[in-house]
From TrEMBL:
This is Putative isomerase YddE. Keywords: Isomerase. Gene3D superfamilies: Diaminopimelate Epimerase, Chain A, domain 1 (3.10.310.10). InterPro entries: Phenazine_PhzF-like. The lineage of its organism: Bacteria, Pseudomonadati, Pseudomonadota, Gammaproteobacteria, Vibrionales. The keyword Isomerase applies. Belongs to the PhzF family. It comes from Vibrio ruber (strain DSM 16370 / JCM 11486 / BCRC 17186 / CECT 7878 / LMG 23124 / VR1). GO terms for cellular component: cytoplasm.
């Protein structure tokens, strides 16, 4: 590992500020997984993305043509503790960086991730929209099981009339609805949540409260994933994609809709995430998450 440049990017910014910082390493083909993990630990953000070429095969001779590329890039994602299959805000940071550095133009691209082949659209203004996997509704969890993890009485959780459910559109998260006005009053027990996440094989917990009808936001959210080294995250693309599917299932079944979520205010870094769900009476047919990002510096690691 020799003089690796890490581009520092805030993803899902709101009016040019806030967002969630991610590291982006271009030309990462020669880095081993151990080196990537070491870089992610040195950077210290919730995720760092590593961009490599994604050739399905190479020509063995001048008479042998290579197969078509199955994706434009292969992207891997590392937290300070481990590799994860997918990361929304680091994907946004990656493709925004490629666009603003002139390596990509507006248009449709495909990234190869451990969560599968996923489409990414770069719009003319630099807005990046990421395809996510169709939702997997994994299981419902009792209010009594979640109450001690966040310090909110089980009866209050039940008063929303909405279930606590594990969903995945790339990474499994526990989606937890709160009554209006309680989002800033939760007290997360990180040790209990880490153990619970490991037991239920989830990345973490995405807690939300619905906003009033005249708000510019559909819901305000907080995300916690201590099991993978993230005490709290200021913008989470994958979890908000799952939240959009959750709301579609329980409140807007059969309708296509675009949601706007705020996250990170409790951390002093308010972020804006849009999530679009196409749906019919058979269920969700397409999920995408979008936002803006901007670079704010670089680090050179020896």
């Amino acid at each position: 590992m020799n003089n690796v440049k890490v581009i520092l990017v805030n993803a899902f910014i709101e009016n040019g500020s806030g967002g969630n910082p991610a590291g982006v390493v271009l030309d990462a083909d020669k880095l081993s997984d151990q080196e990537k993990l070491a870089i992610a630990q040195a950077v210290g953000y919730s995720e760092t993305a590593f961009v490599s070429q994604a050739l399905s095969s190479q020509a063995s001779s001048s008479q042998t043509l290579p197969q078509e590329r199955e994706a434009d890039f292969e992207v891997s994602f590392f937290t300070p503790t481990e590799e994860v299959d997918f990361c929304g805000h680091a994907t946004l940071a990656t493709f925004s960086t490629l666009y603003h550095r002139g390596l990509l133009t507006e248009g449709q691209y495909t990234q190869k991730t451990k969560a599968g082949l996923l489409g990414v659209m770069i719009e003319p203004d630099g807005h990046v929209v990421m395809q996510q996997n169709l939702p997997e509704y994994i299981k419902v969890i009792d209010y009594e099981d979640i109450s001690p993890l966040i310090g909110i009485d089980a009866a209050l959780l039940a008063s929303t009339g909405l279930p606590i459910e594990v969903l995945s559109t790339g990474l499994p998260d526990i989606i937890v609805p709160l009554p209006y006005g309680y989002l800033n009053h939760i007290q997360v027990n990180h040790d209990l949540l880490s153990d619970f996440s490991q037991q239920h094989q989830v990345t973490g917990m995405h807690v939300f409260e619905l906003c009033e009808e005249n708000s510019e936001f559909t819901a305000k959210c907080r995300n916690f994933a201590p099991l993978v080294g993230i005490p709290e995250e200021s913008a989470t693309g994958s979890a908000n994609g799952a939240l959009a599917c959750y709301l579609t299932k329980h409140l807007y079944a059969g309708h296509s809709r675009t949601f706007t979520f705020e996250q990170g205010r409790a951390m002093g870094s308010p972020s804006r995430i849009t999530a679009s769900v196409e749906s019919d009476m058979s269920g969700v047919t397409q999920v995408s998450v979008g936002g803006f990002a901007q670079a704010f510096g670089t680090r050179l690691l020896p």
